[in-house]
Amino acid sequence: MQSKPFSYLFTVSYFGARFKGWAIQKGQPTIQGKLERVFRFVLGNEDFTILGGSRTDSGVSCLEGYFQFFSKEEINWENYFDRLNQNLGGEIKLLGVIATERSFNLIAGMKSKTYRYFFSDSILHPFATAFVAEVSEGKLDFSQMNAAAQLFEGEHDFRAFCTLSESKSDYQRSIIHCLISKSDQFSGEFFSRETRMMEIKGEGFLHHQVRKIMRAIWYVGLGYWTLEEISGRLELPEKNWEKIPPAPPNGLFLWKTELQDF
After folding, report:
1. Which end of the chain has fewer CB atoms at under 10 Å, N or C?
2. Run of H or E including 184
3. Binding residues for substrate
4. What's 104's DSSP letter?
5. Whether 72 contacts 6, CB under 8 Å
6. Which residues are annotated as a binding site?
7. What is the pLDDT of residues 34-59, one digit of tens each?
8. Catalytic option among 47, 57, 170, 184
9. 184: containing domain
10. Residue 68's CB: how many other CB atoms inside 10 A?
């Protein structure tokens, strides 16, 4: 329970390649860790708490996310906003801030999250691989991949498509939509004209869920799996299935976060 009386909601974007995820880890560069260091430096105190809305994995980027900032004192952010962004160095960018009621709970206020995973079955320039994952095992069947993506829509037990945790018992999640399409988000001499993306929107996601779903869809596109392999894992999630490795983090972006009205 937060005791600090003033609450602010920040919108944030970041390029996650050099960071070991959102959450603070001792001796590792993380998004939250850098935010806290910069806020301490610019504000001149450490009497605040930062609560993230999405704990992205190591190497994952974010186009639009949120974090809640609790302070004992009321703050006029116009006096600090530009300096905060200057000291964040460009890889993390604060996009906006509003004051909220003290009772506002960011975690409970999440309505949906949309992730995009960019990939190509073409050989990529090294510069492009910071944003797009290379599927080098062969050519992909995109019509089969779209059929596979649609199997994930709806409410399912996703324990066969996430990293399990001893502290978690509820693996039921709802996927609003999941689709494969062409993408023109990245272009230029270093990028393939055949870049595709998976867009997946849900109310919330389990650890590695998006990346394991992406890997499963690649398996179908490469002909390693049939559609029945996916539907079987969704229908019998507690069966002792072979574990799926998550797709690499470098193609994954938290694209949009929707909040409940407040």
Report:
1. N
2. none
3. 115
4. -
5. yes
6. 115
7. 999 999 999 999 999 999 988 899 99
8. 57
9. 111-259
10. 20
